[in-house]
């Protein structure tokens, strides 16, 4: 959980399950939650895909919106 001692890292990342294209020249990937097939094929080049993981920034849009609304009230 939150055991990090590094204060420099402000951008929180989370690891998600993805499927990525096996073709090294193709950068296509899909979130695992959007895949219904057992073995999906690449939507761009139709190559086989393999299960992998990817680090993505945590979305903080909800927090931002609250902040803006708080400012407008003033
Ligand atoms: Zn591909």
Tell me about the largest β-sheet: 3 strands, antiparallel
Overall helicity = 10-25%
Unreliable stretches (pLDDT < 50, length at least 5) are none
User: Which term fits the overall shape?
Assistant: elongated
**Class inferred from helices and paired strands:** alpha+beta
Mean pLDDT: 82
Instruction: Tell me the strand percentage band.
Output: 25-35%
Domain unit count: 1
How many β-strand stretches? Answer: 3
Counted by DSSP, the helix tally is 1
Spell out the helices and strands N to C.
EEEH
Our measurement of the CA-to-CA distance between the termini, rounded to an integer number of angstroms, reads 36 Å
Q: Major sheet: order of its strands?
A: 2-1-3
Task: Tell me the radius of gyration.
Answer: 18 Å
The unique ligands bound to this protein are: zinc ion
InterPro entries: YdjO
Pfam families: YdjO
Protein name: Cold-inducible protein YdjO
Q: What's the gist of this structure?
A:
The chain is of the alpha+beta class and 74 residues long.
Structural summary, described in words:
Strands 2-1-3 form a 3-stranded antiparallel sheet, with no helix packed on it. The chain is elongated and about 40 Å long. Helices cover 18% and strands 28% of the residues. The protein has one domain (13-73). The protein has one helix at residues 61-73; strands at residues 13-21, 29-31, 49-57. By secondary structure, it is of the alpha+beta class. The longest helix is centred in the last third of the chain and has 13 residues, at 61-73. It binds zinc ion. The site of zinc ion has 8 residues, from loops. InterPro entries: YdjO (IPR025916).
